[in-house]
Amino acid sequence: MAKKNLLYAQSGGVTPVINATACGLIETARAHRDKLGKVYAGKDGIIGILNEELIDTSKIRKKHVAQLRHTPGGAFGSCRFKLKSIKENRAEYERLIEIFKAHDIGYFFYNGGGDSADTAYKVSQIGKKMGFPVQCIGVPKTIDNDLPITDNCPGFGSVAKYVAVSIMEASLDVESMASSSTKVFVLEVMGRHAGWIAAAGGLAQQEKGDPPHIILFPEIPFEQKAFLKKVDDAVKTWGYCSIVVSEGVRDKKGKFLADAGTRDAFGHAQLGGVAPVVANLVKEKLGYKYHWAVSDYLQRSARHVASKTDVDQAYAMGRAAVELALAGKSGVMPIIERTSDQPYRWKVGEAPLSRVANREKMMPRRFISRDGFGITPSARKYLEPLIRGEDYPPYNKHGLPEYVKLEHQLAPKKLPPFKH
Q1: Which of 44, 118, 144, 312 is labelled catalytic?
Q2: Secondary structure class of 263 (helix, strand, coil)
Q3: What confidence score (pLDDT) does residue 262 get?
Q4: Contact present, 113 and 196 (Cβ < 8 Å)
């Protein structure tokens, strides 16, 4: 039988380690040249595939593929685009199958979160119906850590480390100036529905009185009175108050505190920034001088402070995806299974995409302190191993990280342009 080609694409918000997954996938596929053909990568995710913009990774030097392991961002481009159901837009699915046929694609790997798992699952089903079955493997990625079944998600550990380090360092700054200047500092982190990233800030709290003094989770309805009392108590007890707030914090009625009234490409509410909302509330009600910061893209691109655990797991997911394909699997996703807390150990498992697609894993209530403003020992036991270890990128003579920027060589097009 002729060797089939592979098609890989990145989807959704990128992470500090998504390229490590791409590295694992490409290197593993190259190690199996006797069974596998070329690896193509969709330029800018599924949109590039629909437009027949396929990057030929066989043109990328071995050295540059290896450098992907320590380079942040999405080396092949990503997108926020969700396929509709086949009833709503059959043309998109027919186009994908045409692309697969034209470029002899036998394996499709979609590297993303819950929406991406949904896309990979739909494609795995539709290929059979249209007479061109393709092995579809979802590859996990999301800084939000909200995919079900897998113990944790590649990308989260590094973001968790960044947030914990950032609130620790910023709080030392605030504490040193609190007697005559800023008394309240608010750090906003990502997390629309699940508070995993906000919870990670709690790892900075090693002893009583350490920051953050308050964590605001999406899972806990915001109560103004209780919050303000907690702020006031912290300032009076410790001289200052450091707060980590998730972008997805809601009030008792379920409305986002920072709802901007618009929607993104996936239909999610666009959030306009909760840190200034919280900070202004403190100023208005308590009169304390404040500063706020939004970690935003910084948290998901900070490869310089990545967790070694996270890098290793991200690479392993790329390698495992190819191994699943070689084993004849389709409609599945490699996952991380925790086998031990002390010492921390993990292994690679697998899960059906049908159980991953469009599902979110929230923070369990037992991970949140009774008052709703902190994390519990159970949460610490879960979180702490995920930020362990350092995996610094190489630095150049100018003192900056040496990240690779690939030159994309596209495969020749074989089909007419696609009309969206």
Answers
A1: 144
A2: strand
A3: 47
A4: no
Say whether pTM exceeds 0.70.
yes
Residues 6+ apart with CB under 8 A from 68: 19, 20, 22, 23, 26, 75, 404
CATH number, domain with residue 225 = 3.40.50.460
Q: Does 270 have pLDDT greater than 60?
A: no
Respond yes or no: is residue 144 known to be catalytic. Answer: yes
Give alpha helix (H) positions in 80-151: 90-102, 114-129
pLDDT of 152 > 70? The answer is: yes
Confidence of residue 114 (pLDDT cuts 50, 70, 90): confident
**Cβ neighbours, 10 Å, residue 394:** 9
Domain that holds residue 320: 5-142+305-359
Amino acid, res. 341:
D
Instruction: Give start and end residues of each alpha helix (H) in 190-307.
Output: 196-201, 224-238, 275-286, 296-301
Residue 299 and residue 162 share a domain = yes
191 and 114 fall within a common domain? no
Distance between CA atoms of 202 and 295, rounded to whole angstroms?
Answer: 16
Q: State residue 331's pLDDT score.
A: 93
Please tell me whether residues 135 and 165 are part of one structural domain: no
242 domain residue, yes or no: yes
Check residue 196 and give its pLDDT: 98
Average pLDDT over every residue of 90-107: 93
As for how many domains the chain has, the answer is 2
